[in-house]
């Protein structure tokens, strides 16, 4: 009886620990839904209204996105160090404070400086509430089916965007300075999420140190592994090859996504049909992010990466050959739906790359660097793609170029995955040998 009394509290503690991860996942879901949904997915709604009201050139107004990407890239370079020093919970709360501050800057702005300051705060806020942080939190709490859970949580972006657009669009279009109220509402929504994080988020499950190296064997292709130190990761050639692939992926996807609607209009498709086709994108994005996570858990990194990258190349090629015809209208619909299958490469796949290629040991530092490089691709992709249009009067050449780049990325990532998995097998064999020797 005494033995049962001693073991019962431990069993109850483990049960509570396992159950509480769903609270953490729920908080992450709400964080993605509100922060990305209200502060990012709605940005295009403000462009014409704000610039017309304040008499600002659109090109100058859009530079606040450049400041956002620069701030995001810089902060993510130090992501691992910041998590080690302050923890995920404090950074997430600080991120919501920055996002709230960004929305207040936008709401009160009467000049470009305030918009640029808002862009900086937006970039910092997303560094601590977006893909990088969500990937870090889920990596701590979920050692099984991480791809599926990551996909489900990041799918909240599409859901939040759909809700925010329906809620804020009538307010923004009401005329006058009503758009300021939409910014205030977004800031309030983010502030409420920050309060929920403060109350319900926990830093990590109990016995997290042990859980980083000891894992339950399960059916599937995505089991976590101990990993290698960051210094050793940086010494491997495939680490830099992976960085190059991630950069060009962000360059192509962000650049092409930003001009898709304009290109469809340039070839003659009506504004009504383009809006109709693109309306399927947010819902498809939510579904495909979730599906990508499931596919990774079941079929592994090689298949998932190839699937998303080949899809990216295919939709870019289709967008390049689109015409003002019935076939062109069908292509526009196909692009709108299946381009969402390519976009997980710049969201859910970055945490997966960090965990699968380099393991637990240096996860936070590798993930921060991956996201930073990806965001640098964002920052260069959009102006480069639009420069092509300014020079030749059409997006077609750059669309073909980006499709070719994504085919190269697909092939090169096979090399990266092969090299990384050879290192992984060697590390796991060495660990197994240590355990066997210690047990003798």
Give a written overview of the molecule.
- This protein has 440 residues and is mainly α.
- It has two domains: 20-203, MFS general substrate transporter like domains (Growth Hormone, Chain: A), CATH 1.20.1250.20; 230-439, MFS general substrate transporter like domains (Growth Hormone, Chain: A, Up-down Bundle), CATH 1.20.1250.20.
- It is 82% helix and 0% strand.
- It has helices at residues 2-39, 43-54, 58-61, 63-77, 79-86, 88-108, 112-129, 131-141, 146-154, 156-172, 179-200, 208-211, 230-234, 237-266, 271-278, 281-299, 301-320, 326-342, 349-358, 363-392, 396-439.
- Helix 1 (2-39) runs parallel beside helix 9 and helix 8 (131-141) runs antiparallel to helix 20.
- The longest helix has 44 residues, at 396-439.
Quick overview:
This protein is an all-alpha fold.
Q: Looking at this structure, what is the CATH superfamily of the largest domain?
A: MFS general substrate transporter like domains
**What is the count of structural domains?**
2
Kindly report the average pLDDT value: 85
Morphology = globular
Fold blueprint:
Layout: H1 2-39, H2 43-54, H3 58-61, H4 63-77, H5 79-86, H6 88-108, H7 112-129, H8 131-141, H9 146-154, H10 156-172, H11 179-200, H12 208-211, H13 230-234, H14 237-266, H15 271-278, H16 281-299, H17 301-320, H18 326-342, H19 349-358, H20 363-392, H21 396-439
